[in-house]
């Protein structure tokens, strides 16, 4: 289960439908989630592994204490997490399904647990070229004491949707020396 705000954004994204279930940027109406706008960001895709921040809400920019426009989103994450996140984003483009990373955002002396949502958006030609995102704190932001986030460490990165649900596993059982499925 995700935080209710994260789930709200996932449900909104799914409700926009679009081509192959993939909404376009034009289908996203910020008026549909006004309370979450400060936590929202939009990433572009300039090429594999290059996801520049196109738009960042005030809350997102304030956590980093800088303008994020043009910054490669992968550079905000720990170096050891970048490949995993890159793989998840590229997979989300092919499926298309949202990805949620459960992370710890570190300042110099403190940390903040968060969920970070990445939901693919289609361009005018129908190909996924952007991501709608959300920073959702799971604790009080005051823990950071106003210090900027210097690194984000992902504890888990997982796709959300039918293609990522756990499939039933076959278990073999023996009864009186005989295998029973």
Describe the 3D structure:
This protein is α+β, with helices and mostly antiparallel strands and 181 residues long. It has a single domain, classed as 2-Layer Sandwich (Beta-Lactamase), CATH 3.30.450. The protein contains three helices and eight strands. The chain has helices spanning 4-15, 58-64, 79-94; strands at 40-44, 53-56, 99-106, 111-122, 128-137, 151-159, 173-175, 178-180. The longest helix is centred in the middle third of the chain and has 16 residues, at 79-94.
What's this, in brief?
Helices cover 19% and strands 30% of the residues. The chain has helices at residues 4-15, 58-64, 79-94; strands at residues 40-44, 53-56, 99-106, 111-122, 128-137, 151-159, 173-175, 178-180. Mean pLDDT is 89; it is low at 164-172.
Average the pLDDT over all residues and give the rounded result.
89
Count of domain modules: 1
Give the CATH level 1 class.
Alpha Beta
| Annotated CATH architecture | 2-Layer Sandwich
Q: What is the rounded Rg? A: 18 Å
Main-sheet strand order equals 2-1-5-4-3-6
The CATH homologous superfamily name equals: PAS domain
What's the multimeric state? single chain
Report how far the terminal alpha carbons are from each other.
31 Å
Continuous helix count = 3
CATH domain topology: Beta-Lactamase
Query: Structural class, from helix and strand content?
Result: alpha+beta
In sequence order, what are the helices and strands, one letter per element? Answer: HEEHHEEEEEE
Low-confidence stretches: 164-172
């Amino acid at each position: 289960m995700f935080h209710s705000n994260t789930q709200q954004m996932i449900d909104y994204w799914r409700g926009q439908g679009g081509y192959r279930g993939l909404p376009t940027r034009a289908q996203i109406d910020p008026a549909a989630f006004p309370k979450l706008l400060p936590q929202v960001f939009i990433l572009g895709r300039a090429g594999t592994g290059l996801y520049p921040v196109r738009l960042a809400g005030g809350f997102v920019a304030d956590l980093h204490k800088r303008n994020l426009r043009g910054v490669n989103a992968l550079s905000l994450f720990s170096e050891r997490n970048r490949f995993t996140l890159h793989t998840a984003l590229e997979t989300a483009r092919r499926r298309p399904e949202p990805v949620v990373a459960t992370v710890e955002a570190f300042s110099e002396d403190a940390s903040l647990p968060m969920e970070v949502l990445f939901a693919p958006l289609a361009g005018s030609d129908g190909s996924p070229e952007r991501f709608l995102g959300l920073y959702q704190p799971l604790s009080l932001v005051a823990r950071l004491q106003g210090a900027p986030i210097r690194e984000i460490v992902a504890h888990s990165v997982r796709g959300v949707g039918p293609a990522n649900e756990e499939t039933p596993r076959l278990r073999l059982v023996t009864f009186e020396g005989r295998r029973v499925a």
